[in-house]
Amino acid sequence: MEKLVFILDIDYLITKDEKPVIRIFCKDENGESYTVYYKNFLPYFYVYVEEEKIPSFIEKIKETKIAGAKIEEIEIQKKEFLGKELKVLKIVINNPKKVPKVRKYIKDNFEEVIETFEYDIPFYRRFLIDNDISPSSWIKVVGIEKDKKILATRIEKIELQKIPKMKIYAFDIEVFEEKNSQKIALISIVGNDGFKKTLSLEFGSFKIENCEVFKTEKELIKKFVDIVKERDPDILAGYNTDGFDFPLLKEKAEKYGIELNIGKENSKIKTVKRGWIKTFKIPGRVYLDIYVYVDHILSPTIKTEVLTLDAVAKEFLGYGKKEMSFEEMQKIFKEGKNVEKIIEYNVWDCELVLKLLEIFLPQLISLSKITYLSLFDVCRNTYSQLVEAYLLKNAFKDNQIAPNKPKHEELQIRRLKTPYKGAFVFEPKTGIHENIIVFDFRSLYPSIIVTHNISIDTFNCEHQKCKEENKVPELNYHFCTFKKGFIPKHLEFLIEERAKIKKILKNIDKNSEEYKLLDSFQYSLKILANATYGYLGYIGARWYKRECAESVTAFERFYIKNISEMAKKFNLEIIYGDTDSLMVSNKNLTREQLIEIANNFLNLVNNSLKGKMELEYRGFYIRGIFVKRREKEIGAKKRYALLSESNELEIRGFETVRRDWCKLAKNIQRNVLEIILKENDVNKAIDYVRNEINKLKNYDFKLEDVTIYEQLTKDISEYKQISPHVIAAKKAIQRGINLSKGSIIPFVITKYGSSISEKAEYVLFAKKEDIDIDYYINNQILPAALRVLSILNISETDILKGTKQKSLHQFFKF
DNA sequence: TTTGGTGTGGTCTGGA
DNA sequence: TCCAGACCACACC
Prior knowledge:
Helix content is 39%, strand content 24%. By secondary structure, it is of the alpha+beta class. The strands form 6 sheets. The protein has a 6-stranded mixed beta sheet with strand order 14-13-12-11-15-18, with helices on both faces. Strands 20-21-19-22-23-24 form a 6-stranded antiparallel beta sheet. A 5-stranded mixed barrel has the order 1-2-3-10-9.
């Protein structure tokens, strides 16, 4: 028979005779689930042996058992390794689990073995790569079917864009804390098929639809297991379920002797260690913890400073969680009144996860298609791992051998290298400027890599021509111009695919499914393209090449300085610029004149740029402010605010956009910027700040307004300098709060203590009366406000004592 | 074993 | 007591 199916998850089994069977969980067009078994694929790795000793080496290892594994086949292959041809032996063995041992044995026991390669690629990925099958795509399976199980004799990839309807379920657990013990009080499960259920322990009496009450945790967990098995979702998702819900569920299940066999075919969940992070595999289902995806991939591109479900939902959906504090919830549990409210809250969390998944799943699927990683892996990987997976898959296609991951020793060497010189940042012209035009290079780093063919295999080639025509500025490096490098080749593919998709997107309905899918695809391509430069300089990378990363920034400096010189020739004054952007202005020109000149400049620049390089017009700004560095006369880089023509403020670097300043100071600074840039009214700004300070003095504020958030970036014992947030954390830990490396500490500064650190207190244990008003005036509000106002010659005294109005007309032209 | 370098600014720390 | 430098967090691109 023949069957068209969509791959959801993939793993393998080992038969009794120690042979692997690839197992693919999938769905057909009608939404029916199938499991495909495929036996015709064996694990292997490569051995690089001194050429003249190849025959004798083969003789020695052939037909022997090594480290308990059988060698099935040895094949001599010609491959390419970092630009050089390499003759290697492909060693095929019977059992994927034995690959590390066999490899180690061969490496350790045969002198003629120079190196071993590709021994650490997970078997499921090896299968996909070698057969050019991407997960999250359609395949045609040929074989014998019985009870939705297919024993496949052949598997072929099929190009098809659509995605079958999937059964997606989200779950969430709430706990009840009592006498140092934690009980699972509630589990809600919500599906995209309309299924909705809450399992609850007994708390007083309440009646609510779709809720089932249990006397014990044990019964409750059992029911959870039953529901998952019975509803049989394709995808099971949650928010921070790797870190909280599943570890708790596992602990309790073990305690009560319940089997968490919620996988397909009754298989049990497995704990998987990824580095020092634990996660859980549910065989046959796609288990996604979207918090991990947000944390690893989305966090740098989103605005919110905390990654709670509430904040992330607000950013992507426009609405957040239902309101309920932990304390309130515990009180409700304890008193057994109003439990409905918690159930509603808990179910809503699941709904949010489902809603977020509508946005994230297409992205995950796209990334999975590009990298050949499973959805499970894509969801939990970091940038470097995504880039590496993409390169790994393409290495096979190009007959390249992948470099090995650096071992401990190599890592040490790489770590010790001093950082290389990075991007160029202009010193801003301080003050308020009017009529500002901003340009930036479109995807600068990817463009440089492609245009200058920056790659390990093209680095410092022998050709004289390349030395002359593709030399790196400031450095004694050059890159080959005859042969396309491995990295630029595949980076260019990403850029071009993205351009194609963006073109298509222009002509389709923004609300259509197709648009969402393609838009996610182009976004995924962008993520990978932008991460490639960083990957080259990442010490943990297989394709690490410091000189390549160094060359990219050298070209960056060359280009940005070049165009700034050209801009000057056009009578454009350089206000500021950072890495790939340039801000220009000219006091003596009108808006229209300026835009015309800018266009001429842009044309000239783009005509002179080659390859993928392109300068873009980002926008015209009515006004902008650039401030000075603290106690210094020079302009502060990376701190400015621009007012766009649509009257919106774009604020960069200021305290307003930082997490480690209290809301009060941040709001005041933002409003000062608004008043200055929009209304041009300095006196109003001064009055405003003075008034806010008075409000503070009168205790007219909320505790959350004065809360400062800072992260514990290391283990608490590792701190050499005890900062306020560290003290606050220490105090909180003593009082039983669970805080560790990675926690974000909300704290306030109180009156009690001599140093600021001593005065720091975890916000939960502070009251309004404890607040050190002077600290907030002198160390929060005033610095934040004066950062902006001092550029207009306003001083602390002007705000605190000054009653006379400043005449400031000289700063503005009307 | 959490892509890169550049940059600002607060607080602490220890020696003058 | 003062101050420079170290430490630390977080932003920009």
